[in-house]
């Protein structure tokens, strides 16, 4: 008998019919002899409806009261799912975050889980109940209701799985697993049976919006096997574990693209020590996150600095730098938001040289100009013109033979 | 500095605009130097919306989960009201029933309050906060969310006022107080400044649907001065206290009418001991509540028994009795749902003889036939044909000079 934590997002519980579909999946898992804890989000649209009410009152309502308000969304879902399970003859019991309890810090709207007391949940499981827990929410040490921030239901699922020492945490979404590339771009993209936490972290942060980054970090930290699978299709999904459990000989696991960034180049700055700090300091002070940074070798006593920020912050970052152009002594400040970042990810890179060279050669043979490069132990990212995204991803997918299942 | 508990119902908090109106009333009370605890219901329509979701799942969803579901209604309102108060510059803090905590028994859907720990609320008040509490809900000793049943927010207000030893519990409704008669029937009906708990109980149970009966009982039991007043109009409302605080010399406080009942007459039953039990036993067994009962003096060895039930139960009660007509040896079973009960209520009756005689004479002079009579220490009720309701109420209102303020 295994203990499984299943997490269903807002789309999966968006209607009474869909809640019944979820209930039947839970019952099927139970019929296989497993104990099941189900974590659910608010019905899709509900959190926005509640936030809409709050915004009619104030543009910045107090975070404590926002949490009291929006935590009702998941509370509604747990009650409806428990009722549905009961109607279908399956003993079930709902728990709010406060009832579990899931103890968090007091950072309303972005609380972090401090600890979970698994005592009550375990007792209910041992009594034959399916336990239905409200995702995304907790309670601080003083009894105030908190929320973990958007998408936090994944984190609830993983944290509960860790606290209960569950055999697996299954994240049900609207895709049936993690793919070697975006199937909308690469029709031959292949669902991965298995991927490591590290790879998933790189893929998640690079735009494959399957899982919340924090929940993957959490799962990795507590070594909770994580499985991504579809609410709407049958299938094994993709299992995410540590490398040592992986038996496949894969160099590249997947390709991710990200169109959310914009590029800024500050050129012709006198090349004194501290140039990067003088350019990026004011940007950081405005709470704008910088992703890739490239500084060219100085030429004629001046240097160029290029970096990327989120597209939403592009205008603001440009304004800040224009306001300091004189101070910096920069010749020009140029921006471009029509860019994309393309990344190859794979733990196999560690032991396989030449991946970067191969990537650059593939892109060159397609006539795609690389503007920036950034590498880590298990990924290589390049920035290219946005118009090349599809071409680049398809060419790389084919060159690295990602459409073929790896040898075992 | 007084401590006031204010309770606002679903209509009073039905929209964001109305919530702001409530907030301004709370702030006005605070500006008078009072500490304020506000108890609110779910926004009008919200509880029904949630119950509608539950009914799509099952006709009889488990009561524990129904409570988890519908308690979110008040939770939304407390957050919105607290945000509104904060926006208007008034420190405020919301509390669910579980957070206060309001401890109840475990009778989901109709829980009774066992005790309230006023510690947290008092600390927040002393810190200068307005405390906003979710009505209608509590938590049992095991941490399960419970609800007090429909209209239970009044009870929450009174119970909190009792636990906090508040100076007054103000129930805000859509009427501006308790009237000597229904103003839609008697245009000269007068708002009472003051009424006793006993009178209010009689009036409440007789159809003046201003207050929940249970909350009046509760207020009487714990001697919490209760004030009924309007959310939408300024005015002192009606204060409800114990008799000793009343200085007015009033015989009759008000007239109530009730059209919710139907009459059943079982006639020609052989007059043996236990007739009433044999007729009413089966009705009670079917969980049908019987209000007035009159048994006529036996004639020719047979007797007649007449009683009233709620109109919704009339058909069912008739069927039960028809099924037992042979056993009872009754000659006839007749029903009439076109009846009304009219009641005079007033603690002054205790010391004033002749009220009943005067009432009967007034009705007789209008040609109104009395079908049943029932009296208690502070009320006289008569059943008449429904068509006479307005005539009877107006005639009595005038005869007892209820339109004139009493001498002091």
TrEMBL record, chains A, B:
It holds the Pfam family AA_kinase. Substrate binds at residues 47, 74. CDD domains: AAK_AKii-LysC-BS, ACT_AK-LysC-DapG-like_2, ACT_AKii-LysC-BS-like_1. The keyword ATP-binding applies. InterPro entries: AceGlu_kinase-like_sf, ACT-like_dom_sf, ACT_Aspartokinase, ACT_dom, AKii-LysC-BS, Asp/Glu/Uridylate_kinase, Asp_kin_monofn, Asp_kinase. PANTHER family: ASPARTATE KINASE (PTHR21499), ASPARTOKINASE (PTHR21499:SF3). Belongs to the aspartokinase family. NCBIfam families: asp_kin_monofn (TIGR00656), asp_kinases (TIGR00657), PRK06635.1-2 (NF005154), PRK06635.1-4 (NF005155). This is Aspartokinase. It comes from Candidatus Macondimonas diazotrophica.
